[in-house]
Amino acid sequence: PKVSIITVVKNGQKYLDKTIKSVINQKYKNIEYIVIDANSTDNTNNIIKKYRKFIDIYMRGLDKGLWDAMNLGIKNSSGSIICFINSDDIFDKNAVNYAVKYLKDRKIDFLFGTVFKHWLKVGFNPNIARYSFGFYTTHSMGFFVKKKIHSEIGFYNKKFLSADLDFFLRIVFSKKYYGISTKKNELFGYFRPGGFSSKVKFRTHLRDLNKIRLENNQNICFV
């Protein structure tokens, strides 16, 4: 299957080179790479030009924010499997191989891979999704999903700061899709601390997370 990997970037010159290399150096070769640049004003554009022949789709300045750009990437993708990698994260060279090994099974709709984020994060437990934010590993580079799910339940909701959590809960609560986690030793990559969510004030972030749970029909008293 073709795997569409999407990177959304804005002023990411510090780490983008390593991110792009980690995509193009994957052992699995049936990859479509999409890069969306939100009008960067640093050296990002020159880095992208350096690797342009390895990038299948490049768009610049067309989005209305992070989640809009990610939705744009999905809509323009042609792969049957979707994955995002942030412009400061790094894939292990075997990441896509590991993902495809599982997702070739028609019964498996999505996958959470092992990643190093502060420490080694492993597993996916939908049974605790109603009361824990730790039921999955990570979104960037660790989450691979069949594109059909986006066709059926929609894209990332731009009104939320943590639209990835909203998307995960919609998948889990629908009970229509089957997802698993990889083995502990199947490392997908390295997540750099200090990303978007870490820059949001705690109370603002918490309010957003609670709104997401209420939007997904969780009891307001329980939330």
Structure description:
By secondary structure, the chain is α/β, with parallel strands linked by helices. The protein has 7 helices and 11 strands. The chain has helices at residues 16-24, 44-50, 66-75, 95-103, 147-153, 163-174, 202-215; strands spanning 3-9, 31-37, 57-60, 81-84, 90-91, 110-112, 114-117, 119-121, 143-146, 179-181, 187-190. The strands form 2 sheets. Strands 3-2-1-4-9-6-10 form a 7-stranded mixed β-sheet, with helices on both faces. A 4-stranded mixed β-sheet has the order 5-11-7-8.
Write the layout of secondary structure elements.
Layout: E1 3-9, H1 16-24, E2 31-37, H2 44-50, E3 57-60, H3 66-75, E4 81-84, E5 90-91, H4 95-103, E6 110-112, E7 114-117, E8 119-121, E9 143-146, H5 147-153, H6 163-174, E10 179-181, E11 187-190, H7 202-215
Parallel strand pairs: 1-2, 1-4, 2-3, 6-10, 7-11
Antiparallel strand pairs: 4-9, 5-11, 6-9, 7-8
Helix pairs in contact: 6-7
